[in-house]
Amino acid sequence: MDTLLLSRIQFGANISFHILFPTITIALGWVLLFFKVRFAMTGDRKWMDAYMFWVKVFALSFAMGVVSGITMSFQFGTNWPGFMETVGNVAGPLLAYEIMTAFFLEAVFLGIMLFGASRVKSWVHTLATFLVAFGTTMSTFWIIVLNSWMHTPQGYELIDGVVHATDWFAIIFNPSMPYRFVHMMLASGLTVAFLIAGVSALRMLWGDRGEDVKAALRVGIIAGAGLIPLQILAGDFHGLNTLEYQPAKVAAMEGNWDTGPNIPLVLFAIPDEDARENRYEIAIPNLASLILTHKAEGVVPGLNDFVSEAGEVLHPRVAPVFFAFRIMVGTGVAMLALSWLGLALLRKYGAGNMPKLPLYAFCAMSFSGWIATLAGWYTTEIGRQPWLVQGVLSTKDAVSDVPAGMVLGTLIGYLIVYAILIFAYIGVITYLARKATTGEAYSVRNYPRGREANVSAIQLGE
Q1: Fewer beta carbons below 10 Å: N end or C end of the chain?
Q2: Average pLDDT of 8-25?
């Protein structure tokens, strides 16, 4: 292995670990706000009970995201100095905007949100929850802006090989940004919906039939059932945008080698890049053309169009993109089936009498959002290769000259630490669920009722 490949694997491992936690906190902040508003409107203690449990998961996820994000940012200097040297005039300000508009909000109000329920007025605590949720969304916005610009760069000029901004509006609202932002927000919503449904189902299987557990289960199932069709629609629009600006990526996603009309949708195959064909292909005639162009006779680009006359391959490695895309779609289909089944069972039995088998299924799908998010991220980021910034900076031109052995050593260290942390994270959530089931997670006494309810009587469990 060389430094380039090892550096790509290391950055991929770092961001794969990091992205897991913002994917939870982005949407969970808004769910917590919903719980808090529902309590303020109804005075029903179940909503505050739900808030008290899930705010701990938020705090844990937030801390893990911050720590892993710091580690990841170091690699811009250690592994990828060419990135900031070439596009730092765009990337630097965008990352600074994230700090100014998101981190400051989160830093100021997170403490009130986590520890102020019994110390400040109810409306102040609700406002703090809103501002933290808004801060996580703004953080997402600026990161997606930068990532989207790397895929569809606009509003810049090259002077002596260095990118200079000429139009910040074009940079921020580049062609793929709206689609990626919506896609990511919906992905976070689905991740949280299935996490809430899965953990709530686990608590019910352990015998916890509290009103807060049933309410959280209903929220998770209904949110999942409502968001997954929107995600499918957003994914379709995103795919059309990708077809326009990154056709090589679409060709790899579809496993399509030759440009032409009436292209089948390949359900399964093993792409063979040496032979430039698919082996063991199972496909549905015309369906890829129909999905991508909305016409059965629509023309879909092929991978063979992205090979130079000298034989240089100018498209991404096909197998990782091809399989990651199918994992993402397959997970989405499973989410659709389970959430809609859960919705039907809610209507028939109610949350408190849900049959055990679907509860086990929701437990198994607790972290399905992570699988779909990672698969989608691999699809879009590996699919951008060989470019780091599309048409501007290649990946090989940005990598450092650090010895491969040093990169390999740090990579092994990262993987060991991340494996320990991910098991610890899931273990802590399981522990919180078990503790809540035994009634030890928090204690509540004498909730005030009504729209002006003050939560000064709430005591967070230690």
Answers
A1: C
A2: 91
d(CA 56, CA 428): 10
User: 3-state DSSP helix/strand/coil percent for the chain, to nearest 5?
Assistant: 70, 10, 20
Q: Is the pTM of this model over 0.85?
A: yes
Q: What is the DSSP string of 404-434?
A: HHHHHHHHHHHHHHHHHHHHHHHHHHHHHHH
In the DSSP assignment, the letter for residue 99 is: I
146 within 8 A of 93, measured Cβ to Cβ: no
Q: Which amino acid is at 150?
A: M
Q: Which residues contact 58 (CB under 8 A, 6 or more apart)?
A: 24, 25, 28, 29, 32
The Cα–Cα gap between 31 and 142 comes to 21
Task: Kindly calculate the radius of gyration of the chain based on its CA atoms and give it in whole angstroms.
Answer: 24
Task: For the chain, give the number of residues.
Answer: 462
Q: What is the pLDDT of residue 88?
A: 87
- What are the residues whose beta carbons fall under 8 Å from the beta carbon of 268, sequence distance 6 or more? 280, 281, 282, 326
| Strand, helix or coil for residue 441 | coil
Under DSSP, is residue 225 helix (H, G, I), strand (E, B) or coil? helix
Q: Provide the pLDDT for residue 439.
A: 65
* pLDDT tens figures, 276-330: 889 998 999 989 999 888 888 888 999 998 887 777 888 889 999 999 999 999 9
Q: Across the strands, what pairs with 214?
A: none
Q: What is the pLDDT of residue 451?
A: 38
How would you label 26-62 residue by residue, b for 16+ Cβ within 10 Å and e otherwise?
A: bbbbbbbbbbbebbbeebbbbbbbbbbbbbbbbebbb
Task: Quote the CA–CA distance of 101 and 94 in Å, as a whole number.
Answer: 11
Q: Give the whole-angstrom CA distance, residue 368 versus residue 77.
A: 33
Taking the C-alpha atoms of residue 194 and residue 76, their distance in angstroms, rounded to an integer, is 33
State pLDDT tens for residues 415-445. 999 999 999 999 999 999 998 887 654 444 3
Distance CA 154, CA 39 (A): 46
Residue type, 137: T
